[in-house]
Amino acid sequence: MGKLSFPKDFLWGAATAAYQIEGAWNEDGKGESIWDRFAHTPGAIFQNQNGDIACDHYHRYEEDIEMMSEIGLKAYRFSVSWPRIFPEGRGKINPKGLSFYERLIEKLLEKNIKPVITLYHWDLPQELEDKGGWLNRDTAKYFAEYANLLFYKFGDIVPIWITLNEPGVCAFLGYGWGWHAPGKKDMKGAFIASHNLLLAHGLAVQAYREGGYKGNIGITVNVATVYPASNSEEDIRAAERQDAYGNRWFLDPIFKKEYPKVIWEILEKNHWNFNYPTSDWNVISIPIDFLGINYYTRTIVAYDEQDPYLKIKRIPSLNEHTEMNWEVYPDGLYDILIKIYKEYQIPIYITENGAAYNDTVEDGRVRDEKRIEYLREHIKRVYFAIRDGVDLKGYFVWSLMDNFEWGHGFSKRFGIIYVDYETQKRILKDSAYFYKKVIEENRVIED
Ligand code: FCB
Fold it and tell me: What is the pLDDT of residues 373-399, one digit of tens each?
C-alpha cells in the first residue's frame, strides 16, 4: 500500500460557477443573463427547473466558506456573474454586485483560502445576446472591459485568474446544438462564436498584462482523451479528428496561432471560409501563465461514413458510468496530462474533476463511496503525472456542493457537500471527509 505524497505547495481546491449556485437572479441590481432567459424558457431544462434560487449562495456565502474551511481547502474557484457587475453588459456598473464579490473574496482571504476567479462561466448578459452575443465580435471587446474592471478592483488580492471556462461548450452547445443558452442551432455560427471567445480571452490577457498585476492568468478548457475504436488506419484518423475538434480547437490557436488543420480543411470543403484578421492571432496567442483543464471522461471513436462533417461516431464502453452516463476512466486523465504537457509545455491546473451520483441522506450522513473511489483513482493519476514530469500545480474538485447542473437542472449531484434544496441545509458527504484527509496529509493512499 503506497502513500503518494504531493509537492509541498500543491493547491487543493474545489470549484463552482455563479449561475449554478448563487440564486438571487434578479436581486441587488443584477441584470438578466442568457442562462436566466434560457432556464425560464419552457422545455429548455429538466422539469423546467432554473437557477433563480439554486443553492442561495448569494445569501449563504459565509456559511459556505465556513464549510470550505472545515474541509481544509487551500483554494476556491468560483465565477463572477458578468450581469451582476454590468447589468447591461457594459457601461453602467452595479456597485452592489461588486460588493458581493468583495465580501466573498475578503472572507476567503480571512480563512486563508486562495480565491481563483473564472471571469466567464457562460452567463452572458442578455442585453449583449440581444446584440448578437458571441456571434458579435464586439462582445469580445466588452468582455475585456468587464475583465479590466475586475482586475482593477481585485487584481492585487486575487492571485489566479481564468478568463473563460470551457469556450467549446459555450460555442458548440450554446450556438451550435442549442442544448445550452442561448439555445441557438447553427454550426457555422458556433465556429464564429468560438473565434470571438478566443479573441475575448486574448483581449482580457492583454489587459491583465498591461495592468502589471502580479498574479497568474490562464484559460480553462474541457478535454476528453480520445482513443480509436480499433487499430485500423480509418479509426486512428477519426480519433485524430475528434482530438483536434474536441481537445485542440482552442489550444492550438493560443499556443500555435492556428486552428487544427484537419478541421479547418473540413470547414473549407463545406465552404465555411472564415477570414479572420491576422492581428487576431497576436492577441489570441499572448502567453498565458497556466492552462486549466476540466476532465471527466474519455471518448472512443470510429470512422463513420454517414456522419456529414467529421465522419466519426462514438463507441460506447462497457466500463462503469456515472449518473451523467459518463464512463469512469481515470487513466484518461493521466494520458491527456502527459499529451498536453508534452505538446504545449505549460503549467497545468486541473480546474474541474468529479462525478455525479445519486446520493441519499441516511441518518444525517451521505455515504458516497463511489464518488470517493472516483476521486481517489483520479487523484492517483494526478500524482503519477507529476511523478512523470508534468508541471501540475493544483487540483479542484467539481464541485464544492450539489448545484444546478445546466440542462439537467438539480437532478445530477456533483458536490462533496450535499444540498437539500427545500431547506438549503448543507451536509458534508463522506467524500468531503475523504478529501479533507487528502488535503491534510497532502497525499493519497494507493488502495
Ligand atoms: C463542466 C462545467 C461545470 C459542470 C461540470 C459537470 O463542463 O464547466 O459547470 O457543469 O461540467
Answer: 999 999 999 999 999 999 999 999 999
Global model pTM greater than 0.85: yes
170 lines ligand 1 (CB under 6 A): no
Distance 353 CA to ligand 1 centre (A): 9
Q: Provide mean pLDDT across the span 299-311.
A: 96
Ligand 1 atom nearest to CA at 405: 10
Q: Which domains does the chain have, with CATH numbers?
A: 13-348 (3.20.20.80)
Half-sphere exposure of 293 (CA within 13 A, CB side): 30
Closest-lying ligand 1 atom to the alpha carbon of residue 414: 6
Closest atom, ligand 1, to C-alpha of 324: 6
35: three-class secondary structure by DSSP: helix
Q: Give the whole-angstrom CA distance, residue 54 versus residue 277.
A: 41
Provide the pLDDT confidence category of residue 273 given band limits of 50, 70 and 90: confident
Write out the catalytic residue numbers: 166, 352
The reply to whether ligand 1 has any atom less than 6 angstroms from the CB of 293 is: no
CA of 117 to the centre of ligand 1 (A): 15
Could you tell me the pLDDT band of residue 445, with boundaries at 50, 70 and 90?
A: confident
Residue 166 CB–ligand 1 contact under 6 Å: yes
Q: How far apart are CA 74 and CA 72, in angstroms?
A: 6
- Of the candidates 123, 67, 130, 176, the residue with the CA atom closest to the CA atom of residue 417: 67
129 lines ligand 1 (CB under 6 A): no
What pLDDT does 403 receive?
99
Using CA atoms, how far apart are residues 298 and 228, in angstroms rounded to an integer?
A: 11
| CA nearest ligand 1 atom 5, residue | 398
Contact between 372 and 379 under an 8 Å Cβ cutoff? The reply is no
Q: What is the pLDDT of residues 137-182, one digit of tens each?
A: 999 999 999 999 999 999 999 999 999 999 999 999 999 999 999 9
Half-sphere exposure of 416 (CA within 13 A, CB side): 31
CA distances (Å), origin 226, targets 301, 332, 343, 381: 7, 8, 15, 17
Residue 1 pLDDT greater than 80, yes or no: no
Q: How many residues does the chain have?
A: 447
